[in-house]
Amino acid sequence: MKTTGIPLLNIIVFLPLAGAIVCMLPFWSSWSRTSGPDHEPTLVRNVGLAFALVELGFVAYLVADFPGGAAGFQFISSHSWIGTFGIRWALGVDGISLFLVAMTALLFPVAMFGPKLRGNGRSFMGWMLLLEAACMATFLSLDVFVFFIMFEITLVPGYFVVAGWGGARRNYAAMKFFIYTFAGSAFLFVAIIALVFLAAPHNGGHETFSLITLAKISSSLPHSDQVLIFCGFAIAFAVKIPLVPFHSWLPDTYTEAPTAGSMILAGILFKLGAYGLLRLGIYLVPRGAADMAPVMLTLAAVGIVYGSMITIMQKDLKRLVAYASIVDVAFIVLGFFAFSSQAATGGVLEMVNHGLTTGAIFFLVGIIWERRGTLRFSDLGGLQKSMPVFAAIFLAVVMSAVGLPGLNGFVGEFLVLAGTFLTHRWWAVVGTVAIITGAIYLLWAYQRVFQGRVLNPANENVRDITWREITAVTPLLIGIVFLGIYPKPFLDRVTPSVNYLLQRVEIAAPNAHVPASTTKLSVNVPDDQNVETPPTTVPAASSANQSGGAG
Amino acid sequence: MIAHLVSQTTGGAAKCTISPGGVSVSGLCQQAASLHINVEYRSILPVLALTIGGLALLALSAVLPKRSRRWLYPVLTVVVGAVTLGLSIWQWYNVPPAKQGIDIGGQVFFDHFSVLFSMLIAVAVILSAIASASYLQRERLDGVEAYVLMLMSATGAVLMAEAATLIMLFLGLEIMSIALYVMAAYHRRRTQSGEAGLKYFLLGSFSSALFLYGIALVYGATGSVSLAIIRDYLSLNILANPGILLAGLALLIVGLGFKVGAVPFHFWTPDVYQGSPTPFTGYMAAVAKAAGFAGLLRITVGAFTYQQTDWRPIIWIISVLSMVVGSVLAIASKDLKRMLAYSSISQAGYVLVGVQAGTATGTSAALFYLFTYTFIVIGSFAVVDVVQGVGEGRPGIGAIRGLSRRHPGLAAAMLVLLLAQAGVPFTSGFIGKFYVIQASVQQGQYYLAVIAMVAAAAAAFFYLRLALLMYSAPGDGSVEGDLGVFSAGLEPVASLDGGRATAVAVLEAPPTEAVYVPASITLVLLITVGFTVVAGLTPFTIDFAKAATTLL
Q: What is the model's pLDDT at position B403?
């Protein structure tokens, strides 16, 4: 396990929190009145941004320092918190969470800097930084209790960002967002507590919420319990992601949220759910995950087809992007539950891709909204003439979302589809629909907004993208191109962790069709205390049966 | 003297001897030894402090000229409360070892459970006395009576927590309730207040009667009113016809269910909470609930612990009904205090989840929940008191609109209290919910746990609606406008036109004037919010609650 002299992960969690507190201090209000055009509170905004940038620096250090090829958790820090219940403040990072953390750290400054901010900048910055701290803690937590409360606490700033700075029906949207997710979390909560209690007898009668300890114990739980616990997890995360039958909060919330809010909600918040599926669902209860995999795959396939169909029919650009998210997340879930190394790695990559791409799209859509005050396709058209640079950037981002080779979207989609095809052929075939329909709705949207003749005189003289906005979107574009051309550093770090996850599934459920070829890829599974050492000799059936039958 | 009495009653048995001072009794008069009771005063210190404090306050007011010092009586009440709290803390560290905690002729318990409730009630008295002062002065109701009533009801509440027999439990219940009836009707010039008092009195005395009948039936079935003897009797005997026993148990649960405001015995709650003077409502919600649950825990988990299969399903149903009905009706209510009344009903449901577990964990979870809820509810009603203004002139939930502009600190305090009631992490409310659900899951009650959490999600709606109203400001450039802000809460779909009619009806005029927050209310809010946050971050009170599960 890698460690550092400084409590790196704690800094990453608490720095934005400190920033939030600084930004919410009352004295900014008296200063900000006199500064900035349009009463835009520049000073507090810069202070908040500075916190986010320093945070990005720390995360960059974390990414640079992270050893490639290691499957276990690194930089672990663990302190007792609520001893009565065996709850610890434990943080750690592995290949899966590493890039989600990196994406979070990248997207937040962009969202705080890019879109034009109206209203109370002080509390906006405060809520955003609080949200960043909570997201970081969710990704980094090694204690399921910490995971749960951080997962929950993201709702509060999320709610206030939507309700405070959103569009016309923002209150409704914010409330719907909160209630849906809160209700979903009910199942997560009960599942976590049930898991802890069922695991306690195997832990010498002590209750523990430690992710690593629970992972060691949980495979010896009765089969049916694992399935039920997984279902609890799956419902909560399916609402958060959202998978199709639970998706109805998404379009309202994404559409009504302010630009920065949409970027964060779509870019990061749903990753909490997807990450939870991996970290709690597959990692903690592999047997349950294996048993329920057909259901999840089917929901994902349904989501792809159904989501594509509604997306094509949308008449509003922002709503279209929101519905497109449903397709993307279904794709990610498909990759996770195919249980092959390529697909799951692709799923993780898609999570990062989606954060970059959707973040950029929502940002660009927000610019159109600022300029034109409408996002209906019928009101737009021919914008390319007056804003050529903007159109070019938009097209690049759209191409990434469509999956043009050379950009990041292609790598992720290819890995997911190839990996799924190995194990679940027909689901992969259905998944391919997303490639086609994605091109249809996104390119058609591009065509309707930017090309054609200018029919509406309001579209004749729209201001092109400003330097400030270019500055904001550039980091995202760099990420899009870099991951498309050279994904190796990414894959080197993600694949070992993913393989370890899948090995757990293979051991717990030998009949889960984990292709043997994928786990052989696993290199350097460390023998430190963090990772349960898998049986090194693989006379596959017998050893797997033994460890699977131990429960 | 006693010896003489005893010798008379026992037919002049010569062998009966009682040493001077009554230290020991021997001989034939053993049967009548109950006439001699060895009083261990340290076991009832909180009761003594509260009673003597209340009486002293009354006596003092007779001597002092009327309206001599405006702050005298509340300050004295706080002193009495603080003394009670101090004595309780002393008691906590001097609780006798188990099995010796029954004192005064087997009438009262002296254990961690009772001491924890003494602390809780002392805290409630202190906070409510501070919170009531400004209200009573503003409404020109100040005088000693309110504080004496408060101390008297606290006496009854502590007695309920200490009671070792059903009769003592009933005595405590009545002492507490009668004072509370008067407190509900305390605002002389508001008809609603009188109505609340009358309703509370009529329904309350009805439930007391049921409770008393329950005692009679249980006595008939077991031959004793002592909780310990009932428990022992039921552990050794299996009743061939348990009908009378179970009917008695059911009546006891009904009587106490009324006091804690659990569905379906909740019908008085919204009316009484709405009509009572606001700080008293907070006091009532904290103390009556706590004392009711103390009795309920003593009876169900304590005395009837061997009848768990009988009462746990009953509590299960009551708990689910309370959580669901409370949450749903709170969403529909447009009056601030009424809404909080329904909210308190649903909170009672969560405590019942802990009771339903029937284990030590469940008991300590319920205790923790009650302890944290005391702070939350008194703080919430203090905020409501301030925003309602003179004569409780703004009863609707619109009163809280735009509070963040009018008084940011007050809005922030209310936000924390609302989030705590909704059970958002990093507040004591979350740890409370976590603990009761944990206790429930430990007993395999998965369905109850899921229902509780889903009800919490529904309840989050109306807490958030208040938060939304506080943090929305008219004219901040949104299309939604003033009315939409309100209808967004009530009628989610209608943003511009649909909700207008309702919104206008409820929201006569948006409050714009600055809110005056007296220093006393600030103090109460600092304490309550501080405790809510600290107990949410470092749940030190859990250790107290864990130690206080010695029911019998």
A: 85
- Verify whether the Cβ–Cβ distance B441 to A190 is below 8 Å: yes
Would an 8 Å CB–CB cutoff place B432 in contact with chain A? Answer: no
- A187 vs B460: CB contact, 8 Å cut-off? no
Interacting residues of A452 by C-beta distance below 8 A, sequence separation 6+: A381, A382
d(CA A108, CA A453) in angstroms, rounded, equals 37
Which 3 state secondary structure label does DSSP give B109? Answer: strand
Of A336, A427, A439, the closest CA to residue A395 belongs to A439
Cβ of A197 within 8 Å of Cβ of B442? The answer is: yes
**Distance separating alpha carbons of residues A362 and A215, to the nearest angstrom:** 37
Question: What sections of A373-487 are H helices per DSSP?
Answer: 383-386, 388-402, 408-423, 425-450, 467-485
Single-letter code of the amino acid located at A479: G
What is the model's pLDDT at position A535?
43
- Which pair of structure tokens corresponds to residue B433? 């919910």
Beta-ladder partners of A91:
A77, A141
d(CA A503, CA A517): 12
Are the Cβ atoms of B468 and A163 closer than 8 angstroms?
yes
Distance between CA atoms of A321 and A327, rounded to whole angstroms? 10
pLDDT digit string (tens) for B268-324? 999 999 999 999 999 999 999 999 999 999 999 999 999 999 999 999 999 999 999
Element (H, E) at A152: helix A144-153
Identify the closest residue of chain B to A26 by CA–CA distance: B408
Q: How far apart are CA A549 and CA A508, in angstroms?
A: 8
DSSP string, B222-263: HS--BHHHHHHHHHH---S-THHHHHHHHHHHHHHHHHHT-T
Distance from CA of B291 to the nearest CA of A (A): 26
Amino acid identity, residue B153?
Answer: S
Binned at pLDDT 50, 70 and 90, residue B67 comes out as low
Beta bridge partners of B108: B103, B163
CA distance B289 to B329: 19
Q: Determine the distance in angstroms separating the CA of A519 from the nearest CA of chain B, rounded to an integer.
A: 36
Nearest-angstrom CA–CA distance, A518 and A403: 24
pLDDT at B19: 55
Q: Is the pLDDT of residue B342 over 80?
A: yes
Q: State pTM to two decimals.
A: 0.85
The answer, for B495 touching chain A at a CB cutoff of 8 Å, is yes
Compute the distance between CA of residue B463 and CA of residue B430 in angstroms, rounded to an integer. Answer: 14
Cβ partners under 8 Å of residue B133, min gap 6: B71, B74, B142, B518, B520
Please give the Cα distance from B126 to B88 (Å, whole number). 14
Q: How many Cβ atoms from other residues are within 10 Å of residue A137's Cβ?
A: 25
Give the nearest partner residue to B468 out of A84, A171, A189, using CB atoms. A171
* B7 to chain A, closest Cα gap in Å: 57
pLDDT at A21 exceeding the cut of 80: yes
Q: What are phi and psi of B144, to 5 degrees?
A: -80, -20
pLDDT given at position B481: 39
Q: What is the pLDDT of residue B368?
A: 94
For residue B349, CA distances in Å to B247, B257, B262, B344, B360 come to 22, 10, 7, 9, 18
Asked if A393 and A472 count as a contact pair (C-beta separation under 8 A), the reply is no
Backbone angles phi, psi at A316, to 5 degrees: -130, 135
Place of tokens 């003593």: B298
B539 contact A CB<8A: yes
Whether residue B437 and residue A185 make contact (CB cut-off 8 A), yes or no, is no
A76 φ, ψ to 5°? Answer: -65, 135
The dihedral sign for the CA sequence A251, A257, A260, A264: negative
Angstrom distances, CA of residue A83 to CA of A145, B43, B141: 12, 32, 48
